[in-house]
């Protein structure tokens, strides 16, 4: 079994230093609870409700910056994997990104492809598939928030043999519930179930410039069952979800069925016409 954690953090675009402090607090608490893989929210270094590109630039980090360097040191010292959503500046371009770090250093970064709402005003659209990397625990994929609502995108991670999907999120509160569970968490369950992957989605809390959030971080097993889900009414600025999960080693769902091998890609060409 692998112990995973989703850190739900109250973020404030007006106080990026406090955002980073709370992110570090979340990592520390997750480590103290024995987490081996730790997932942080989308744009954890900045907050979300930007009013200008200059605000993004002021709050962004770089791949060789102090923040990632500090997390590399933490990951090395504690032998953990950290997945975090960041406002990231690469070659003078701004991305809504996710990074994966383990004890060996930065394993890679991913730029959000399916930008939501006004994000197009502030970020360059990513042009690479979901990042999938090898770790001591198995292959881990990452994408960001709205990306997970595109089944084709999640399927790419499964086809690249990901055993765990890590999703930093800032889900806007649209008030959509299915039998009391936020729609966004149900979508994560579906993504995990149909692709036989563990899923860890780290959401945020904290009102920000008139925006409110679902605040429903969730961890599922590879069948889509909820292993842990956030208390949406909690006033904690840092809420840690921890669960022990089995990372799958194959994509079989019955002795005679496999969601990879049973695919009929020759018949799927129609999806590319629209």
Description:
The structure is a single chain. The chain has about 270 residues and is of the alpha/beta class. The chain has one domain (about 1-250): Nitrilase/N-carbamoyl-D-aminoacid amidohydrolase (4-Layer Sandwich), CATH 3.60.110. The protein has helices spanning about 15-30, 55-60, 65-80, 150-160, 185-195, and strands spanning about 1-10, 35-40, 80-90, 95-100, 105-110, 130-135, 140, 165-170, 175-180, 180, 200, 205, 220, 225-230, 240-245, 250-255, 255-260. The strands form four sheets. Strands 1, 2, 3, 4, 5, 12 and 15 form a seven-stranded mixed β-sheet that branches. A hairpin with a 2-residue loop joins strand 4 (about 95-100) and strand 5. The chain is globular, with a radius of gyration of 17 Å.
Q: Can you give keywords for this protein?
A:
single chain; 274 residues; alpha/beta; Nitrilase/N-carbamoyl-D-aminoacid amidohydrolase; 7-stranded mixed beta sheet; 6-stranded mixed beta sheet
Reconstruct the topology from this structure.
Elements: E1 2-10, H1 16-32, E2 37-39, H2 53-59, H3 66-78, E3 81-90, E4 93-102, E5 105-111, E6 131-135, E7 138-142, H4 151-159, E8 164-168, E9 177-178, E10 181-182, H5 183-195, E11 198-202, E12 204-205, E13 218-220, E14 226-229, E15 238-245, E16 252-254, E17 257-258
Parallel strand pairs: 1-2, 1-12, 2-3, 7-8, 8-11
Antiparallel strand pairs: 1-15, 3-4, 4-5, 6-7, 9-10, 11-13, 13-14, 16-17
């Amino acid at each position: 079994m692998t112990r995973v954690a989703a850190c739900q953090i109250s973020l404030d675009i007006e106080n990026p230093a406090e955002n980073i402090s709370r992110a570090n607090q979340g990592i520390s608490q997750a480590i103290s609870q024995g987490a081996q893989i730790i997932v942080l929210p989308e744009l954890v270094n900045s907050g979300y409700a930007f009013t200008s590109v200059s605000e993004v630039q002021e709050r962004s980090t770089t791949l060789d910056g102090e923040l990632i360097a500090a997390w590399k040191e933490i990951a090395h010292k504690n032998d953990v994997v950290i997945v975090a959503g960041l406002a990231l500046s690469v070659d003078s371009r701004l991305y809504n990104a996710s990074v994966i770090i383990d004890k060996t250093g930065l394993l890679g970064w991913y730029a959000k492809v399916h930008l939501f709402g006004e994000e197009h005003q502030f970020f360059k659209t990513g042009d690479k598939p979901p990042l999938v990397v090898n770790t001591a625990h198995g292959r881990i994929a990452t994408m960001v928030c709205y990306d997970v609502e595109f089944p084709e995108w999640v399927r790419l991670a499964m086809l690249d043999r990901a055993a765990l999907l890590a999703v930093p999120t800032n889900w806007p509160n649209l008030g959509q519930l299915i039998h009391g569970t936020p729609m966004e968490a149900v979508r994560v369950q579906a993504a995990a179930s149909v692709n036989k992957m563990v899923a860890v989605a780290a959401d945020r809390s904290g009102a920000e410039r008139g925006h409110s959030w679902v605040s429903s971080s969730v961890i599922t097993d590879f069948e889509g069952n909820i292993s842990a889900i956030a208390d949406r009414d909690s006033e904690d600025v840092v809420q840690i979800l921890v669960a022990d999960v089995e990372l799958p080693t194959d994509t079989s769902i019955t002795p005679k069925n496999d969601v990879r091998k049973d695919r009929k890609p020759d018949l799927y060409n129609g999806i590319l016409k629209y």
